[in-house]
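Researcher: We plan to redesign the surface later, but first we want a full-length starting point. Tokens attached.
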């Protein structure tokens, strides 16, 4: 659920855009209203405003709506290569080729991380996830890898702030356990977690340095837990080799000095 401070109209606007991203076809007002759970009068007013702003186009013949080319251009500049250096995207591709598992890049945006690039596993049983998915910072490999880049006082401050995060993103583990996991990740050079996103999946993650990314970014390998455990040493070696190649070194074994 969105925070109480977010207006209902903004929530509905975002839901409409997310619906078009999923469906990728013209949609009727009735279908849109039913899908996002909005009253007919409210959705009619919202769609009319979106048409007036050239966000949506209305096709009278079929009585359907579709995002405009103008709207597509608004975010066209925000692609993977604007988010991270090309070398990081290349590292994700190499990791997928080396491990055969799903490899993701995620950036931290406030109280969670969001996946923006996915190199899919070629194996029949694999970890499947889409760009745009949100990952919690607490208990996940992605989150723990990010926390290794922060000094412990900053981790505690973020922990306290996330207590008011939307359901699913607030901490459920005691702070002491979080700090132990972060300490382990700093020592071994990567974060490992099972069930942090999907119950039957495990992941291993390392942070990308600020000079190679616009926002705090994590490189992660994820797959079924039984395979990840079998290949943990191999994946760790490959991840740390990429770390060395990219020149951003292992996370410090001691708390970062900020």
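Model: Full-length starting sequence:
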């Amino acid at each position: 659920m969105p925070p109480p401070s977010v207006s209902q109209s903004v929530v509905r606007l975002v839901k409409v855009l997310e619906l078009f991203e999923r469906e990728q076809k013209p949609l009727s007002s009735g279908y849109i209203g039913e899908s996002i759970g909005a009253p007919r009068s409210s959705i009619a007013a919202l769609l009319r405003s979106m048409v007036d702003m050239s966000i949506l186009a209305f096709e009278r013949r079929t009585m359907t709506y579709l995002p405009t080319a103008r709207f597509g251009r608004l975010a066209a500049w925000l692609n993977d290569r604007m988010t991270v250096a090309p070398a990081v995207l290349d590292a994700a591709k190499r990791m997928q080729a080396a491990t055969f598992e799903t490899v993701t890049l995620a950036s931290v945006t406030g109280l969670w991380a969001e996946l923006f690039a996915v190199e899919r596993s070629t194996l029949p049983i694999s970890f499947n996830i889409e760009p745009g998915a949100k990952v919690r910072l607490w208990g996940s490999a992605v989150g723990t890898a990010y926390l290794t880049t922060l000094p412990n006082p900053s981790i505690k401050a973020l922990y306290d702030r996330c207590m008011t995060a939307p359901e699913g993103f607030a901490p459920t583990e005691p702070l002491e356990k979080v700090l132990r996991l972060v300490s382990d990740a700093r020592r071994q050079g990567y974060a490992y977690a099972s069930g942090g996103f999907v119950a039957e999946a495990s992941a291993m993650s390392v942070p990308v340095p600020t000079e190679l990314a616009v926002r705090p970014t994590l490189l992660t390998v994820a797959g079924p837990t039984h395979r990840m455990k079998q290949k943990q040493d191999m994946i760790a070696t490959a991840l740390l080799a990429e770390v060395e190649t990219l020149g951003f070194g292992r996370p410090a074994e001691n708390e970062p000095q900020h």
